[in-house]
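=== Given protein ===
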Amino acid sequence: MTTTTVPTDPRLNALRTLLDGRWAPVREEVREQMGRFRPVRPGLSTEEYRARVLDLMGELAATKRPHAGFAPEYGGEGDIGGTVVSFQTLGYGDLSLLVKAGVQWGLFGGAVQVLGTSRHHDEYLRAIMDGELLGCFAMTETGHGSDVQHLRTTATYDPATREFVIDTPEPGARKDYIGNAARDGKMAVVFAQLVTGGATHGVHAFLMPIRDDAGAAMPGITISDCGEKAGLNGVDNGRLVFDHVRIPREALLNRFADVAEDGTYSSSIENENRRFFTMLGTLVRGRISVAGGAGSAAQKALALAIRYGSTRRQFADPTTGEEVALLDYRAHQRKLLPALATTYALHLAQEDLVAEMHRIQAPGAVVTDEKAQRDLEYRAAGLKAVATWHATSTIQACREACGGAGYLAENLLPQLKADSDVFTTFEGDNTVLLQLLAKGLLSEYGSRVSELGPLGTARFASGVAVEAVAEKTGLAKLRLRAVDPRSPQAQARLIHDRAEHLLASLARRLRPAIRPGSDQFGIFNDAQDHLLHASRAHVDAVVYDAIATAVDKVSDAPTRELLAQVRDLHALSVVEADRAWFLEHGRLTVAESRAVTAAVNDLCASLRPHARLLVDAFAIPESWLDCPLLRTS
């Protein structure tokens, strides 16, 4: 019978150091603060829950931790990366607090900081940082969620009064699902189509009050409550409707564009599409934060389920007569340990992404490379999609792995499942985000091919054509034979080759769309499954590289050996999940495909004694794990 590794294992500190990474002091500070916050007790009414989360917001603001991401001249530290990491660490606690804090300091405060200029910073940033001015991020509309470029709310400039007139021209233009709007928000960053002199200049952001000091809606603004949701009921999501609301010209967040008193429009970015994507690109922090928060939710679920499965016993071993721990069953290991390995890999990929964001966006950063900024946006889109889908599936598996106990509210998993479920569709619907990533990958792929020159392009096209014929006729060569599934070189080849092949074949499939008169929508729509597969494969390659690099950097040999097994389990789980593709495209033989599954089983057995150690390395505050599930198992 296998035994559980005790928390005092000498590898624990090495794993914690690796996972905490560059911003370890930030993580430790937030953990300490969370230990002082009392978890929200179950059974509260929606109003009571919102009030409690608002109180927690005040406690969080008093720690000054939310100040860190703002500019030093306003009392911050300019630590963009640290802010995202602190948000991620909050994911171990109440997710309503996480989301409300993200709306206040990430979306609302972040938009004022990155889209506004000194006239907005001087007047509002300090109050936003201190939590004295609560605000909303009013982008999404009832009729337009992901398609932000075609929002219908209008902001029409009136030169006679030097004001913008904000209007909701149709029911579909109502601002919907807006966090902080239903109860606590006093101001909102409103995204609307800017119109001046009869010309529309695309979506811009405006800072406007929505409530007066007494809490009543401002004239011309109708505020309603979205009501109870499947989860996150500590967040007061609401709806906003504007009836020709006038705000001063200076309310335009004018970092990238401005309107003069006479109505003349000007922008440092002439192309409207480029200007729009530049403005949205500066807000990529929210997307990265959601991926991190989802990762923390998955870690918490795994900590609960693995600790429970290590001690809860069911059915007797006929050879010994002793009941068997749930986690000793292969089926139970299969539910949890591959998910744990992927959670590790995603965490390390998230660390890399946060570091790149910090490099580009931190105050004083001199990164002017537009490609680097666009690559960051694409990478964030892909990782957010994969991380949130992974969290959703992992939390469900953990809930099932705890049986009836996992269905009781007192054991945290049901609330965790309900609260995290929306992560797959907010800050960008995942399917749309993978399409955004595919667009970037195709653009980069086209540039690489064009750089080959006429002769290189001809050779490249010839090679692609030969490969396509080989696949169609079943004659594909087994040129990437994975002799040993446990070989990291073989894993890397398989995962990267799939990503590269899917992208190349997608580009070939979409080539007819560039012909004059082609049905571009129809061609892209028909290839949408291929497009999403290619994007997902690309993210898998990025995530694998993150954990493979981390293994190489670990100096402690026992820890490195353990982490190498985690890497292998993650990689082979990815391959196993798409075995059909690897078989169809000649990357694996039938025997090798079977060997992959056998290796996954072997790795589950090898890692089972260390499962408790691996979840303890997340260092989740015990007060946020405390529940009857772990006290009685």
